[in-house]
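pasting Rhamnose-proton symporter for the record, 360 residues
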Amino acid sequence: MFDLFQVQENPFTGVLFHAVGGLAAASFYIPYKKVKAWSWEIYWMIGGFFSWIIAPWALAMLILPQTPQILAQASTSSLVWTFSFGLLWGVGGLTFGLTMRYLGIALGYSIALGISAVIGTLVPPLFEGKLLSIAATQSGQVMLLGVFICLAGIALGGKAGTNKQNELSDEDKKQSVSEFHFGKGLALALFSGVMSSFMAYAFAAGKPIADIAVAQGSPSLWQNLPVLIVILAGGFVTNFIWCAYLATKNKAWSQLSSATVHNPRLVNILFCALAGVTWYMQFFFYGMGTTMMGEYEFSSWTLHMASIIVFSTLWGLALKEWQGVSAATQRWNLAGLAVLILSMVVIGWGNTLAGSAAAH
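structre below
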């Protein structure tokens, strides 16, 4: 029944999957803006339950009913490391949500994900001792060029964000991002970017689990679905502990037990569910995209980060977060957007060259 999904490696198809995942990642926070009368820790925790527990299990069981057997066969070592990296990544996801509160979508995504792109892409092959050998090949040089083009695009976006910070009045900033605080948001974005990169390591640690899935007849396209269950369980633990602490400290638990016109509990849960499932879809497509990238699978993280920033920039424009800035700042912003799109094309080209070289 899965023959249709036994697809061959195709880096540009992988780029497309990563782009769809990036759209989901850039869009997930929008439904949270519709939640009323709930503190951040309450709606983040409820949405996270859908993101990290319900959606991963539901889709894995729907597509790969043998998922429990796959996980049962996995070694304790691979499960522990995958879960542990998920815990660390969860810290990044937690502080990423706070980054959105203080910097807004466009600026918050650019800073946090730019840092994550560098660390999550280049450190794994460097740690494995493969980076120099990759850089010695034509395909590797093209792929790495794409990574550095991505960094240039992020830098352009950062320049636009800095200009925006200097040009807008405090009142204008509060209109687009109600809790805007550049210093607090910048510190959180830097920390979030470092910790979020652990998702790339979690996928690497979960490779033995994916191999078991393939050995059991799972289509290669879906091999990472069981891996995601383990990673996101770790992320859920981190986020739940922190949100529970905040809810207790701020006496926010009562928000879940009362339902009024001003506190529409069911509606809030539905918006949290929409945000949570949308968030999960980024890694659903990321997992598929990595299977398409071939030898330079690690470049998936750059593609994921670049596509998120592209779509978050578009959302920032649509939500008028850049309203009131100068034409020059708008040009910096659009230039960054164009360079990021170029980086995705170049990375896809490098991976295609690597596949062609391997075929010969």
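The two ends are 32 Å apart (CA to CA).
The chain has one domain: 12-353.
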